[in-house]
Amino acid sequence: MTAIRRRLVPYFLLGPGLIWLILFFVVPMYFMARLSLEEGTLTEGFRFTWQFSNFTDSLAESDTQFVRSFVYAGVATVLALLIAYPLAYAIAFRAGRWKNALLLAVIAPFFTTYLIRTLAWQTILNDTGVVVDTFKTLGLVSEGGRLLDTPGSVIAGLTYNFLPFMILPIYASLERIDQSLIEAAKDLYSSARTAFWKVTLPISAPGIVAGTLLTFIPAVGDYINADFLGSQNQAMIGNVIQSQYLVTNDYPSAAALSFVLMALILATVVIYIRFAGSEALMGEEARRA
Amino acid sequence: MRKTWKIVLALLALAAALGIAACGGGDGGLEEGASEEDVETAAAKPIGGEWTISNWPLYIDNKTIDEFDKEVGATTKYIEDINDNFEFFGKLRPQLQNGESGGRSMFVVTDYMAKIMRDLGYLQNIDKSAIPNVEENLRVELEAPDFDPEREYSVPWQSGFTGIVINTDLAPEIDSIEDLLKPKYEGKVTFLGDMYDDVSLVLKMQGADPANASEEEWNKAIDTIEEAADSGQIRDFTGNAYAGPLVKGDIVAAVGWSGDAIQLQADNPNVKWIRPAEGCNLWSDNMVIPVGAPNPGTAQAFMNYVYDPKNQAQIAEYVNYVTPVEGTKEVLEKQDPKVANNQLIFPDEQFTADCTPQAIPDPSFEDAVTERYQSVVTG
Amino acid sequence: MNGMAVESARIERSAPARAWKWLRENAITIYGGFAIAYMLIPIAVIAVFSFNDPAGRYNFTWEGFTLDHWSDPFAITDLTDAMVLSIELAALTTLVSTALGTLLAMALVRYQFLGRRASNFLIVIPMATPEVVIGAALLSMFLLYGVSPGFNTLFIAHVMFQISFVVVVVRSRLIGFDRSLEEAARDLGADAFTTFRTVTLPLLAPGIIAAALLAFALSIDDFVISNFNSGTTVTFPLYIFGASQRGIPVEVNVLATMLFAVTVLAMLFTIWQQRRAERLAATRPEQEQEIETTLALAPGQGRA
Question: Which helix (DSSP H) or strand (DSSP E) does residue B77 occupy?
Fold first, then answer.
């Protein structure tokens, strides 16, 4: 291949995908950005006035929901990791030729819609259902208490609904580990546990980073779980944005809130990646190549 | 070489952005065709062909559409996608702003939403010559509502009451809004997400007149609701969704709609709608024709069709809300006396004495209270 | 020394110790089993309630067993239409987004080029954006350019948010990918494209498949963005959301269970195919088998 063609290859690979993203993400975002700096109402019309106060105002009004969203999403992510990692490990290393079958079994439930699964949890966590009764016997729920419309149910819903986002990347990175490497490590460290901590875990780090991000980020902006499984006191920032856009029709505030949310998420992600090691995510490949 | 490229690309991006900005324009408001002379009147002809109507769920029986189609030679697409006035409005607003109707020829929206849409210039006037049945049979009480005194752009589809739906098994003694706020029902009560319904009832409870309430009175009512919401007294704010928990027994009472209670008795015979001691709200869901509606002639023909008492009787029997068509009761007395004599469907004057139309706040503070109420509902 | 060996052997053989050892060795598998059970609980509930016979609108409490809804699951035409539409949409968008995303991932991981940082950034941002915002922003843009919302806008929107996820999943597979196999192929005389086709792609396959599965699930599941960009088109989730307000018909449970069952069947089919391939390989001449085995082993290995 000639030198110039070689230089151009990455652009050809990038081209279609990037163009799609630019046209259908960046451009609409630009419009939203303009909207966030406008002021006015639906009846008066909106005017572009560099209204930066939209940002500060909406942040101040919805600080509870922001904190709540980050906490719920954080807890849900940790729980999801605890559930997903051993499962991904089991499938990658203990499943043998059942690997693909099990993977499909893990994904299959998520082909029934998000809404239906959440509604099923509504039925399961019902005040008069088996789960609540059991929890009452175990003393985890008070006599007149309930599981639905509490922070617990919203977090449980978030954890459940974002599990495949955690499982798949971890599985993908575990799956390519050579078994003989682990065997060698076990011999070297003479303990399965040490072999795990020193070899398996670090190699699967990119998968963990990808999984946690893919779980945490959408969870923060989610509003369906809070809608179906929670009461007004569990409302997340997604609920606020949705209601501001659709009910109050206060588009500038809704747009401003969205940008604040995105900024906060990005800040979290940047700190997280710095902490987790950016090479894990960005890949040493390109530097070597 | 590389650096120059970077600069060129950046400039191109900037130019593109500016170019797009030029097309961007602003988000309009009232200036877009809301003056009286500009309002179109929907065309009365031709009738027939395809048309689409958006309505609330469970608001029609399963035969009327087919029969209508056969009679006028139409193909009706009936979508039950309205669950909340504002959500529906939010979804369609960008198109309505551009003078398009989102493919629909008719929606059915509650009084206050019809007014909002009208004020923004999104609705057409109805050609009265196309709807003689409506002129003849519309109930007297509904002929001249505050928001559309000459019924220029709205025709009631069904009316209803907002009161309290209770589970008589679990809380037979509840009979007022005040009861709902009592500590013994903490976490066992829901309110509607609809500001107009909830606040009207609380205004009555606090002795204010919903039709003329001031901003302070509105805020005082919202204060009460906010307190109950934050403390967990009110378990949730719902649209139609209060019905499930009520049937299950998760809640003992809900602020809810009359027609629902009748339909819910099939799931749980202990469910009953009661009129709160303070009084109840009266509202209508109205058929309206948006600007840019395709095939408005057939839409108006449909309005006319359902205002024939015979056809309306079939709908009323299934829907169980208050029918706006005079003469339906007589038809039903022969077909289904139980429905004809149900106070909730054909209320007599005594029953509705305490009921007033939903309060609509004065435009000067409507936006402010709407925003305030929404922040209560979203925690 | 001998005595100690006998000692430990005796300890080894005691029943509780053996049970504990078995437990420790299989802990992961047992845990995995519980995890899968947890994931399947809601599906079980959905399936069970598809046999329910509720008197009224609501399908919350068990009222009686019936096969009525299974005998005619497509009774509600609106629901069936919505389901078919969702499946078509998901299939089409998955094809496009997986292709675009895989190419993107390859470019990002393997090449140094101008704008690499920016591209990385651009990929991550859609995932950090609340769906409400994406949905609303997209709709405003479509209207401005005169495109009325419908299947096409849904298609565009779905591919858009799928791409980022595909990239992330494929990328985590690409990192640490063993290039030596590709180099070997090229040494043997294959050009870049053939190498890609016969070596890279098969090795990448598990990652691509995982990404495609995720993309498909994302599309079928999507509610928020679809709600804004669907016009009068009704997808399965949109139908359910409407229905959830007023009582979900049992047919919804039936269709959801059917969807799940179909995926299970697909899974069983894959197993059957795998077994068949193994059996056939056992009957082939030795030489071919060696090459086959080498290539078959390759997917499981990526030496770090």
Answer: strand B74-79
Nearest Cα neighbor of A239 from A76, A121, A16, A64 is A64
CA-closest candidate to residue A177, choices A88, A93, A101: A93
Closest A-chain CA to C121: A266
Same domain, A86 and A205: yes
Range of the domain at A44: 15-51
Render pLDDT for B244-287 as a digit per residue (tens, 0 to 9): 888 878 889 999 988 888 878 877 888 989 889 988 888 999 99
Q: Which of B247, B264, B318 to mutate to test the interface with C (most CBs of C within 10 A)?
A: B247
Nearest chain A CA: its distance from C141 CA (Å): 6
pTM of the complete model: 0.80
pLDDT at position A40 = 76
Whether B183 contacts chain A with CB within 8 A: no
- A216 and A104, same structural domain? yes
Indicate the helix (H) or strand (E) that contains B78. strand B74-79
- A39 beta partners: A47
A254 in contact with chain C, both atoms CB, cutoff 8 A: yes
Query: CA angle at residue B86 from A24 to B24, to 5 degrees?
Result: 35
Q: Which of residues 213-232 of A touch C (CB under 8 A)?
A: 213-214, 217-218, 221, 223-224, 228
Cβ-Cβ contacts under 8 Å, B29 against chain A: 40-46
**If you write DSSP's letter for every residue of C97-164 in order, what string do you get?**
HHHHHHHHHHHHHH---TTHHHHHHHHHHHHHS-HHHHHHHHHHHHHHTTPPSSHHHHHHHHHHHHHH
Tally A–C CB contacts below 8 A: 315
Which residue carries 């049970």 as its tokens? C19
Ranges in chain B annotated CATH 3.40.190.10: 36-153+289-307, 161-276+357-377
Whether the CB of C112 is below 8 Å from some CB of chain B: the reply is no
Q: Which residues contact B297 (CB under 8 A, 6 or more apart)?
A: B42, B43, B44, B45, B46, B47, B48, B130
Domain at B36-153+289-307, CATH from 3.40.50.720, 3.50.30.30, 3.40.190.10, 3.40.50.1970: 3.40.190.10
With an 8 Å Cβ cutoff, is B100 touching chain C? Answer: yes
Q: CB-based burial of residue B367 (10 Å sphere; 0-12 exposed, 13-18 middle, 19+ buried)?
A: middle
Who among B24, B83, B247 is closest to C242 (CB)? B83
Cross-strand bridge partners of residue C262: none
Q: Give CATH for domain B161-276+357-377.
A: 3.40.190.10
Show Cβ contacts of residue B246 under 8 Å, excluding neighbours closer than 6 positions.
Answer: B165, B167, B190, B252, B253, B254, B256, B264, B268, B271
Neighboring chain A residues of B377 at a CB cutoff of 8 Å: 232, 235, 243
| Bridge partners (DSSP) listed for residue B282 | B161, B357
Greatest Cα pair distance, chain B, in angstroms, is 90
Give the span between the Cα atoms of A41 and A60, in whole angstroms.
Answer: 20
Which domains are delineated in chain C?
A: 2-49 (no CATH), 77-248 (1.10.3720.10)
Q: Alpha-carbon distance B96 to B100, whole Å?
A: 5
Name B255's bridge partners: B164
| CA contacts within 13 A on the Cβ side of B157 | 24
Q: Alpha-carbon distance B33 to B97, whole Å?
A: 10
The chain B residue lying nearest A238, using CA atoms, is B378
Q: Please tell me whether the interface predicted TM-score (ipTM) of this complex is above 0.90.
A: no
Looking up tokens 């419309």, which residue turns up? A149
Over residues A6-22, the mean pLDDT reads 83
Q: What is the pLDDT of residues B86-107, one digit of tens each?
A: 878 877 877 788 788 888 999 9
Q: Rounded to a whole number, what is the distance in Å from the CA of A240 to chain B's nearest CA?
A: 6
Alpha-carbon span B370 to B375, nearest angstrom: 9
